Amino acid sequence: MNLELRVVIADDSALLRSGVARLLTDEGMEVVAEAENPGALLDAVATHRPDLAIIDVRLPPSYTNEGIHAALELRRRYPQVALLVLSQYVEEQSAGELLASSPRGVGYLLKDRVTDVEEFVETVRRVAGGGTALDPEVVAHLVAAGRSPGRKRLDRLSPREIDVLALMAEGLSNGAIARRLFITERAVEKHIRSLFPKLDLPPGEQEHHRRVLAVLHYLEATAGAPAVKTEDRAW
Questions:
Q1: Residue environment code for 12-34, b if the CB has 16+ CB neighbours within 10 A, otherwise e
Q2: Angle value at C-alpha 74, between 72 and 80, nearest 5 degrees
Q3: 58 vs 51: CA distance, rounded Å
């Protein structure tokens, strides 16, 4: 069997690590390391340079949000490594920071809602391939934290701005959006600047943060899907 993906798993529970490792191995993936704390996770990624790190939010010593802070550090050091965060709750600020750092190859799932093995394996493959997977409850929390505009505010956008925002939600860069819509990249930038205030995203916010919030607004207003799925593209 060809081993197509190399994975590191970080969780303080040896039983959970073992179970996930067995599942992924049975699916033809290679679990190159298991870690029980943030330091061991960082060392494992530095040593093995995996395609994906699966990380529990609650890691020692405090069992609060060490895992997501380790994920942010991994994104800073190794942006090519995809990150799939598993959590029992939504930590809005850190989740937003993780998405804003670069939402390509990022997943954030709630453990209690991961009930389908095949769907979880598909999510692992999608995130490792550069896609995005967000539990809808995560989207709802992040949008609420950013003042959700709802459908009415989305209706303020012009048809072309909707086109641009929809492609942003697919994960396309400005250049890729320009090619898809047969317009210039400067025109794409102009449309993005014009849609921010219509969604009540003030200039005081950082550009990348406004971009993430705009996409989350769009997803919340247009999708009732079981998970947000973004193809292998980069924002």
A1: beeeebeebbeebeebebbbbbb
A2: 115
A3: 22
For β-strands 228-230 and 132-134, DSSP reports them as antiparallel
pLDDT tens for 1-39 read 445 899 999 999 999 999 999 999 999 999 999 999 999
Reported as half-sphere exposure (CB side, CA atoms, 13 A), residue 213 has a value of: 25
CA dist list (Å): 218 to 23, 102, 138: 34, 18, 14
Q: How far apart are CA 58 and CA 88, in angstroms?
A: 8
Instruction: Give the tens place of pLDDT for each residue, 47-58.
Output: 999 999 999 998
| Contact between residue 8 and residue 45 where contact means Cβ atoms under 8 Å apart | yes
Two structure tokens written together for 30: 């290679």
Q: How far apart are the first and last CA of the chain?
A: 34
According to DSSP, residue 61 is labeled T
Quick one: which of 208, 61, 224 has its CA closest to 139? 224
Let me know: does 201 contact 215? Beta carbons within 8 Å.
Answer: no
3-state secondary structure of 133: strand
Place of tokens 């209690």: 112
CA nearest 220: which of 155, 146, 148? 148
Cβ pair 27, 120 in contact under 8 A: no
- Rounded mean pLDDT, 207-224: 72
128's tokens: 């490792």
C-beta neighbour count of 119 within 10 angstroms: 14
d(CA 10, CA 71): 10
The rounded mean pLDDT for the chain is 83
CA distance 161 to 176: 15
